[in-house]
Amino acid sequence: MNKIIRIDMAELKVTTEKPPHDYQLLGGRGLSARILNAEVPAMVHPLGHENKLVVAPGLLAGTMAPSFGRISFGAKSPLTKTIKEANAGGTAAQKLDRLGIKAIIIQERPKENQAYIIYIDPKGAQIINAPDLSGKMNYDLVTTLQNRYGKDIGVISIGPAGEAKMTASTIAVTDQDGRPSRHAARGGLGAVMGSKGIKAIVINAKDTKSIEPLHKEKFKETVRDLIEILKQEKRSQSLSKFGTPSVIQFLSQLGSTPSWNYHGGPVKNIENIYGETISEVNQSRGGRMHGCMPGCLVQCSIVFNGEDGQHLTSALEYETLAMLGTNLGITSLDAVAQMDRMCDELGVDTIEVGSAIAQLMEAGVIEFGDDQKVIGILKELREGSPMGKIVGQGTAFTAQFLGLDRVPVSKGQAIPAHDPRACKAVGVTYCTSPMGADHTAGIDYRDSLSNEGQVKRSHDAQILSAAIDSLGYCFLAMPTKGQLMYEVLVKLLNARYGTDIKAEDVMNIGINTIKDELAFNHSAGWTDVHNILPEFLRMEKLPPHNEVFNIPRDEIDSIFNKSVIPKT
Amino acid sequence: MNKIIRIDMAELKVTTEKPPHDYQLLGGRGLSARILNAEVPAMVHPLGHENKLVVAPGLLAGTMAPSFGRISFGAKSPLTKTIKEANAGGTAAQKLDRLGIKAIIIQERPKENQAYIIYIDPKGAQIINAPDLSGKMNYDLVTTLQNRYGKDIGVISIGPAGEAKMTASTIAVTDQDGRPSRHAARGGLGAVMGSKGIKAIVINAKDTKSIEPLHKEKFKETVRDLIEILKQEKRSQSLSKFGTPSVIQFLSQLGSTPSWNYHGGPVKNIENIYGETISEVNQSRGGRMHGCMPGCLVQCSIVFNGEDGQHLTSALEYETLAMLGTNLGITSLDAVAQMDRMCDELGVDTIEVGSAIAQLMEAGVIEFGDDQKVIGILKELREGSPMGKIVGQGTAFTAQFLGLDRVPVSKGQAIPAHDPRACKAVGVTYCTSPMGADHTAGIDYRDSLSNEGQVKRSHDAQILSAAIDSLGYCFLAMPTKGQLMYEVLVKLLNARYGTDIKAEDVMNIGINTIKDELAFNHSAGWTDVHNILPEFLRMEKLPPHNEVFNIPRDEIDSIFNKSVIPKT
CA-nearest residue of chain A to B78? Predict the structure, then answer.
């Protein structure tokens, strides 16, 4: 990790920079926040020439340590108008680290409205004009690139939604099967990549090797310890068997899984999408579980086959089954799997688009439960009809179009499939995270219906999330005890980089990341005033526990006072 | 003006309140700001049940004083998400004042999704269920109401756009001819009225009389002085002859009249829409000038006839001729007049919708200069097609839909037909006014290309505008010297109300209004960070003077430090 690649799309020029020394222990989300703060004026238009897209693998991505292969994308978000980071698994992070690349900074916009790819191999990076790739869906795009550059490439790409600068668009990353199934989905970062004219980044790291840590034995030993810890964790065991849908039964009974556009209440035949059912159906069709990243132990990603026994979609996740399923009154597994594939092809966030479609249902444009109409809307998104393009702009936009005021968003972003009335700590995160409504920014289900201690839980989870997002670790592979995680992380960092830091320094990576992000947001006009969830979450009681989100506002606003924002 | 009428649309209940004594010299915009600050939480959704719509005539509306008949509408705006006031002429303010009504506060929303009217006469106010009126265009609506309640009523109404809660929707007020041609157009307040389920407010003040001031002779004398002042003003003379289009020749040569979506440069046959040409054409067709308000001396409103000699539209204003004309590359007088009528019928802001259509042209969806396609889009707005409804949501929304980042808005609102690069003082107003991009909030063309003294000019103009908007005076009838205006206002207020205030107290009405508005906006998350115009206005040189908007940011941010925000 000894270089930063800078891509100037106005000059069509690539330069290489040596990162400053104080970037040594900055990677992923933390590095992205630091660079954006230094280089992007906070009030720029997110699709304007002054915004930049930062691509940064985690700090241990190229090593043999498992579950560290996540890659971060950062920019000012066209959806939230805040700083934003979204990360994904797949193989790109490992390849970039093995090529010695700490970050790619993409700036400016091409003078001509054309499609380009960035091709990176051990010799360096090139910008290649690729008009023939324009408009391609993600799977076809990746196949074309694999035919052109070899099966072993890693691909970071946008679908037609990113090209059309839709604010629900994603950045896709190929998984271990070479499929564009892993998405940095939140915040519309695909539109930023689209505004830069980049259809794909192709990474060819064919003859590179695993990164050797400075202290090999110590590293190996810690990896072994981590593996032991994960083997003991019930959550990991359950994820390995059933993937993220393993939680549907519990969360839907708690009320946390949204249904009927967050009105709540039972959805008929919900057992069709329980983790156990999916596993059974999928096995009978020859589907399987896999690790989205090289070396992952948890292997929670579902490679799902259709009725014909052929591959239908990969990474059929809980959030998708809830936001395109239960929240729309839909429990047809095959229909949701088909929608998931369509979203991956288009390059749109299943949470944002699912919630936007719930708004159409709320307004009566289509009926709750009508899965074929939902598939129709996604087809329209492909065809670029006005209605399809509206949904591609996300939930708040669709609600405004429809004149609705019950809008499940925070800081402009759709609330994911953890209802803050049933999981109060994640509600605090939705209010206060610099990322807006993002469950991966800090979630904790302990005592989740109570108001007690949730601000502290959110605080700790946010800092741990920011730390692991900077290290490229997968939050699904986290031990239940956060402190254990910090201890593993510090050992791995010291062993790889020869540093001598302590667990609290790793915590500080998280703290400093949030500090940088809040600083950017402050300059972009965000204040504590915005730490608020939509009225319906504060007023409408959620079945079955009849809870509202009612953590006192002063507690929420004080969340970072002690750690991130020191009292002066 | 001894009562406030409160309409609760959830309970369908009308109550009458005695205004507190300190409201005595508060009317129009100032009263609206005070009430909204006291009663509406700043972070509410503008279309939610907690927002309120305040209707408040100016303080002298029911007297014989000329040009004081404006009426203010205030709410949290669904377009800007700030506090907003928009005012209009017409006859409603005079009638309300003569009925003793200082303000109407409309709160909550009906439980059933139905259309209602508010009927007000000397006996009081009633809420009347009127499902048959739903969906009606403004002219047809008003005719229906006149047939039902008599020719002499004043009508405040929304068109189909307000009913559909479009954020470019207006509130219409009938003029002296009984036509819904005067619009409180900015900020989408029609959508707030629509969210309350109110299609129209009908005011029957048939047997009421002109308000007698406490000191009649003093009042008459001051009115005579004001008339003398206005007769001397060149601007009034020109407005009387040619209306607001009298400025097109001068402003287009200065570059201030936008053309080609603010890219600037000459538009062919622009002389077709010069004030002199319009007057000539209109006279030959039997059209005329009229005063939109009772007793107006300036009479700048154009009652425009079509080629067939029949009435086509009233109030064909400069802003409309620029935003639906030159800025779209269109100079066909009859086409723009037809668009103006369509916008009045639909109840949409010609500035906001015009600028939204310019975005469609920028994106190549329709061609610059194609007036028939523009008329087609307005027809689609009527029919409720997705594209029509997108345009009805205004400029920023349309730009996002199209993936464009060169967006001529400030605080979410379309910049009107005074380019801030050619009129720097109005640029400062667009940045700093609590109203966002609103030329009526403070405009001054003195030395308009220079950077010197523009912050002071904007400051003074904003305070004077806030004062006259609170008194219901028309800013087109203002003497060039602001101080003269304050002197007239104080004499009229003292004569009407028997008070003993000074000119500086009238200025304080303006200062306190802006103070209240900024306080609301602060609580709604607006900070100095937002005092910024879009990049293109700061970077792209505007022909013919090749100016950009480059008033230093610290000067802009300090605008209210001395007056509105006292240093502590």
Answer: A400
Residue contact B532–A43, C-beta within 8 A:
yes
Q: Please list, in sequence order, all residues whose beta carbon lies within 8 angstroms of the beta carbon of residue B194, skipping any fewer than 6 positions away.
A: A403, B158, B162, B163, B164, B165, B169
The gap from C-alpha A269 to its chain's centroid, in whole angstroms, comes to 29
Tell me the residues of B at the A interface, defined by beta carbons under 8 Å apart.
42-48, 50, 78, 164-167, 191, 194-195, 385-387, 389-390, 393, 397, 400-401, 403-405, 407, 522-527, 529-530, 532, 534-535
Per-residue pLDDT of chain A in tens (568 residues, 90 and over written 9): 689 999 999 999 999 999 999 999 999 999 999 999 999 999 999 999 999 999 999 999 999 899 999 999 999 999 999 999 999 999 999 999 999 999 999 999 999 889 999 999 999 999 999 999 999 999 999 999 999 999 999 999 999 999 999 999 999 999 999 999 999 999 999 999 999 999 999 999 998 988 999 999 999 999 999 998 888 888 888 899 999 999 999 999 999 999 999 999 999 999 999 999 999 999 999 999 998 888 888 899 999 999 999 999 999 999 999 999 999 999 999 999 999 999 999 999 999 999 999 999 999 999 999 999 999 999 999 999 999 999 999 999 999 999 999 999 999 999 999 999 999 999 999 999 999 999 999 999 999 999 999 999 999 999 999 999 999 998 888 887 778 889 999 999 999 999 999 999 999 999 999 999 999 999 999 999 999 999 999 999 999 999 999 999 999 999 999 888 865 5
B42's CB contacts (< 8 A; 6+ apart) are A529, B76, B83, B520, B521, B522, B523, B524, B525
Q: How far is B130 from chain A (nearest CA, A)?
A: 21
Interface test with B, best of A51, A529, A533 (most B CBs within 10 A): A529
How would you class B20 by CB atoms within 10 Å of its CB: exposed for 0-12, middle for 13-18, buried for 19 or more? exposed
Query: How many residue pairs from chains A and B have C-beta atoms closer than 8 A?
Result: 86
Is cis: bond before B544, omega within 30 of 0?
A: yes
Nearest CB to B405 within list A47, A403, A534: A47
Measured N-to-C along each axis, helices A482-497 and A454-471 cross at an angle, to the nearest 10 degrees, of 20
- From the options 1.20.1070.10, 1.10.10.2840, 3.90.105.10, 1.10.569.10, give the CATH code of A239-419: 1.10.569.10
Checking DSSP bridges between strand A116-121 and strand A198-203, what pairing results, if any?
A: parallel
pTM here is 0.96
Min Cα separation B363/chain A (Å):
12
Q: Which of B47, B404, B523 sits opposite A529 (nearest CB)?
A: B523
- Strands in B182-184's sheet, in edge-to-edge order, are B124-129, B116-121, B198-203, B154-157, B171-173, B182-184
Structure-block tokens of residue A427? 């509600």
Statement: A420-478+502-568 belongs to CATH 1.10.510.10: no
Query: Distance (Å, rounded) from C-alpha B369 to C-alpha B293?
Result: 34
Contacts of A50 in chain B (CB under 8 A): 535
For residue A348, what is the DSSP state? B
DSSP state of A547: B
The domain defined by B3-203 carries CATH number 1.20.272.10: no
Measured in degrees and rounded to the nearest 5, phi and psi for residue B465 equal -60, -45
Q: Scan for tokens 């998708």, then name that residue.
A: A320
For chain A, the structural domain boundaries read: 3-203, 239-419, 420-478+502-568
Residue to mutate among A405, A531, A537, with most B CBs inside 10 A, is A405
Interface TM-score (ipTM) > 0.90: yes
CA nearest to B44 within chain A:
A535
Closest-approach residue (CA) in chain B for A536? B48
- How buried is residue A561: exposed, middle or buried, by Cβ count under 10 Å (0-12/13-18/19+)? exposed
